[in-house]
Amino acid sequence: MKALSIKDIAKKAEVSITTVSFILNGKAAQMRISKAVIEKVEAIIKEMEFKPNQVARSLRTGNTKTIGLLVEDISNPFFASIARKIEDKAYKKGYKISYSSTENNPAKAKDLIEMFKSRQVDAYIIAPVPGIEDDIKLLLAEGIPVVIFDRNLPDLDVNSVAVDNFNGTYIATEYLINKGKKNIAFVTVDVHVDQMDNRFLGYQKALKDHGQLFNTALYTEIPFNNPDDNTDAQLKLMFELNPEIDAVLFSTNYLAIKGLGVLKQINKQINEDFTIISYDDHDVFRLHTPPISVVDQPIEEIAERIIDIVLHELANSNNPLNRRGLSKVVLQPHFIER
Amino acid sequence: MKALSIKDIAKKAEVSITTVSFILNGKAAQMRISKAVIEKVEAIIKEMEFKPNQVARSLRTGNTKTIGLLVEDISNPFFASIARKIEDKAYKKGYKISYSSTENNPAKAKDLIEMFKSRQVDAYIIAPVPGIEDDIKLLLAEGIPVVIFDRNLPDLDVNSVAVDNFNGTYIATEYLINKGKKNIAFVTVDVHVDQMDNRFLGYQKALKDHGQLFNTALYTEIPFNNPDDNTDAQLKLMFELNPEIDAVLFSTNYLAIKGLGVLKQINKQINEDFTIISYDDHDVFRLHTPPISVVDQPIEEIAERIIDIVLHELANSNNPLNRRGLSKVVLQPHFIER
DNA sequence: GTGAAAGCGCTAACAG
DNA sequence: CTGTTAGCGCTTTCAC
């Protein structure tokens, strides 16, 4: 079964392909094509279930109606949830999403951007990894809409939607201090993206503001993509060497989940005297016994702001004058006490 | 900055575009193009960072090197994990993934298939919703590779990767019975896809084989996409009306997670006398106090089998003779006792 | 060994 | 009001 083309429709309707094309693109009125012809052609299109070949259209018009989405890992609930919301909104506007996971690997990220480029995606939504600033600059130089999120690239003039990471850990740390905690550990990843660094800084600043000293022994950095065993061992070591720890702040949900696993293994109870807080919420924390307080990122709002910016830029990419300036959105995280 | 085309390269290298094209496609040797020319052209390609326009290539060749992935909801960890694995393997073979969430809505699923079609995706990976059998048939009739997974469409001659759902609930139920449970409730969704029905049947059969009667009062069906409040209320009601319940088998992880939330609200302890089992694992269950036993689906293997079939069909789609017959893969779930 | 040219399906000047 | 036609960038047949 061969796919239909605009030609087949034209032949069947006994009009030219131009006429069909105009009707297909809603330019019939403006081209003052007669009602009779429009109706006839539309009837045939419907009857034959003709769908224009989007690839040909893309080649001709230069836009593909797809948005490239680059995240760290689509199987991380944080990214998956955002992906889902973005997909929904994009779908309603006729856009499709092509996604890829960068694994925090700049080489892979660069390669993915290349692939997206050669596929002519209309816009990019990127959770950036360090080292791809130049690639993003290139995109911008070509006038392609880009929004970065989750992490900021401070010295890049690019739209971004971020959460105030500094404040997130600040309020969490402050909460712990107010609860009388004296030895608050901080567990994070070794990926020094702006966002992670800020989470660390928020923690440090809160300690300082409340007259506590930052103790490097209570700071653990886990390599990204560490095999589980190593991570477990590293965390165990920290707990063993520092029995005075009375609270732990994890800079990201999957580390906190690993942490809970380790605490279970070493049979350390979470209670009034030993508190855990995670950055990013997760069902695990809500249902845990006892429940775990978290710094929650407004996922819904993040996704909304991202796609709004993208769609707006896309809608106005023809007349650059109409494009609003850079959007640098900073949303506030919420502390959920449990 | 205008994008380069093959023409620019040809001009710069002072050869014809044909030559460039051959070199680009690795047909240089077979066309017996001289080494000197090849090297010169390749140097220029590298120097100018030329990337062929994939859209034009697609229009010409008819294949887009992208695979359409239709899942119920990309933010469900089960689908997200599978999506991730599929993405990885596809990426290594030069394929990209375009995903969409069907929300169990046949109209949306149909529409998405149309969109993918007009975008000429090379192959489809679909977690089917009932009512799209005809659309899948159409795809097959056109010779496009399709693999369905998670749910089977029994009367369709299409590649599928499924898990033995019947056996999954059977062994879980048997486990509970062997633990001495007499009133095992079953909570499932109202979506009557083959896979969910089989989970129910496995539960029923196990009861029967062990001389227990199926009690409809202990069977609760939650509407898909139910607002949280309703679901909670429905579950509460079941627990209230049937205090004799000594175990609950949830047919899917998100229902079990909801269930845990409800049990927390009504302060019902999970212990030797009251056991919970979920279909599909999740971090929540592993870390829960007490931990929750689950029927685990071999996600990794599912993803692997899917992408293997797809890539194999794709590789041999030119010579249909070489295509192996239908692959109907059935994998076994594992019961994880915790 | 290399090049000219047709054409994939569609859009949009430009003609009439 | 509708049709003719020139490409979009690439692959591939055929010719030299």
Describe this structure as you would to a colleague.
- Chains A, B: This is LacI family transcriptional regulator.
- The structure is a homodimer of 338-residue chains.
- In chain A, 46% of the residues lie in helices and 16% in strands.
- With 338 residues, the first copy, chain A, is an alpha/beta fold.
- The first copy, chain A, has three domains: 6-54, 434 Repressor (Amino-terminal Domain) (Orthogonal Bundle); 62-162 and 300-330, Rossmann fold (3-Layer(aba) Sandwich), CATH 3.40.50.2300; 165-296, Rossmann fold (3-Layer(aba) Sandwich), CATH 3.40.50.2300.
- The longest helix of chain A is centred in the C-terminal third of the chain and has 17 residues, at 299-315.
- The mean pLDDT of chain A is 91.
- The interface between A and B is large, with 49 and 49 residues.
- Strand 2 (96-101) of chain A pairs antiparallel with strand 2 of chain B.
- Chain A binds a DNA duplex (16 and 16 nucleotides) through helix 2 and helix 4.
CATH hierarchy: architecture of the largest domain in chain A: 3-Layer(aba) Sandwich
> What fold name stands as the CATH topology of the largest domain in chain A?
Rossmann fold
N→C terminal distance of chain A: 60 Å
Number of helices of chain A: 13
H/E topology pattern of chain A: HHHHEHEHEHEEHEHEHEHEHEHEE
* Overall pLDDT of chain A: 91
Coarse morphology of chain A: elongated
CATH-level-4 superfamily name of the largest domain in chain A: Response regulator
For the largest interface in this structure, which chains are involved and how many residues does each contribute? A-B, 49 and 49 residues
Poorly predicted runs of chain A are none
Instruction: Please state the structural category of chain A.
Output: alpha/beta
**In terms of quaternary structure, what is this?**
homodimer
Rg of chain A over CA atoms, rounded to whole Å, is 26 Å
Strand content of chain A: 15-25%
Kindly give the count of domains of chain A: 3
Number of strands of chain A: 12
Please write the CATH class name of the largest domain in chain A. Alpha Beta
Main pleated sheet of chain A: 6 strands, parallel
The portion of residues assigned to helices of chain A is 40-55%
* Spatial strand order of the main sheet of chain A: 2-1-3-4-5-11
